[in-house]
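Hi support team,

I submitted a single chain yesterday and got back a structure, but I'm not sure I'm reading the token output correctly. Could someone confirm the output below corresponds to the sequence I sent? I've pasted both exactly as they appear in my results page.

Thanks,
R.
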Amino acid sequence: MRSLTLHLKVLITLLVTVGVLVTAYQIFILGIPVTEDETDDLWNIDAKVEFQASPREPVKVQMFVPPLNQDYVSLNESFISNNYGVSVNRIDGNRKLTWSARRASGNQTLYYRLVLTKRYSGEPAKAKGPIFRDSISVDGAEKIAAEALLAPIRQHSADVQTFISETIKRVNNVGDDNVKLLLGGDASTANKAKVIDLLLSIAHVPMERVHTIRLIADAQQTPELWLRSFNGENWLYFNPESGEQGLPTDRVVWWTGDEPLVSIEGGKKPQVSFTLNNSEMNAIRLAKLTDENTDVDFLEYSLYGLPLQTQQTYQIMIMIPIGVLVILILRNLGGLQTLGTFTPVLIALAFRETQLGFGIVLFTIITALGLSLRSYLEHLKLQMLPRLSVVLTFVVVLIAVISLFSHKLGLERGLSVALFPMVILTMTIERLSITWEERGGSHAFKVAVGTLFAATLAHLLMTIPELTYFIFTFPAVLLIMVGFMLAMGRYRGYRLTELFRFKAFLKD
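Hi R., thanks for writing in. Yes, this is the structure output for that exact sequence:
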């Protein structure tokens, strides 16, 4: 590496840096899985709505559903009902589902199903909310009690966050006489939230009720109430019972506001029950599905965005540099002699069709017979082009004969020999025969064995599923490989085989 010029050093550093940064961005920022076997959680949420319809009256059932603008993204949303019209509208940051029917009678059951995942949910939208509110009108004893509670809250708080936390702490102290007065004997979570809202309104601090569902499998539950306030930059979430700040990662916001989850016209006794279960999906399949159903464009510049047939072609093509790198290491560092650089790689590609063992046998038989024919043609004193034409025709005929006999013998694998690159075999036979004439049979045999060994090793690496997936998913890795190839281009040291050849000099 010391002999590298400054220009080459800068180029290598630039290629490796870009390759590492792009790959790291895909893995750590976009969250693309490193292995094909990686899976991700899917959450299936079923909301079952039951009610009793009034006879001879139109029925209109409205229920809040998740706004789908948070950390989780929807893969599928289903509305299951019989003879009901369905519509979804956005109201004050919420989504409200409406089932409607002209006539219904008796017990009715409606279903809402949602499939969520957290991976690839995209960047959250910039938070917006009120930073000021008007006070709720209160007088008499309640006003005195509220002011008595607010005095120490102001003294022990420094900002909106600490003010709300201190307020929740005070309201949950049910032994306090002022708190008892404001609660009026009702210590439920909803009533505590109402008192907290009153105290915060007097201080002009905005507050919203947030109703959440906890993602836990095999559990029926009802929405849990949380409180949130906007501090000018972000929403701050608080548990009205414990004062815990920050919405847990396993919570999904279902709706916000004071309205009930479900309302009904033309019916009575509505009840909603939630059932959740968890499943897994292959991460890449999930990535494609998410990209199709959301606005997240994380696969926009990925090879997975190509048509499926084109993807299969590129999965083969993109592994060719791996084979070339193997040949480069074997030749420049190991000293292995082969028929050029690309001939072993092309033979390795042919092994994908014939499979390795059968391909080696076919390569050996066809090359040996081709060399015999080439030796015979040499006696006829033919020029190179006619000689190559005859050898190519012979290879085609030989491949056809092998395929025919393989089919008759029930060896279906032999039919794949027709996909063997005939031109490559022809040129291999021609180059081996020239090597035989110029440097002898032993050297030609050594080169043939070296070519077959290099092709076999390249094939084994090029067909590793995990490596194929990694290179195809993170093609920027090829830039790192190019940097290594450039560095190898200035290597002038001994090959591994030369160390054994010149071992006698070391003894002297």
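A quick pointer for reading it: Residues 210 and 256 are 4 Å apart (CA to CA). Let us know if anything else looks off.

Best,
Support desk
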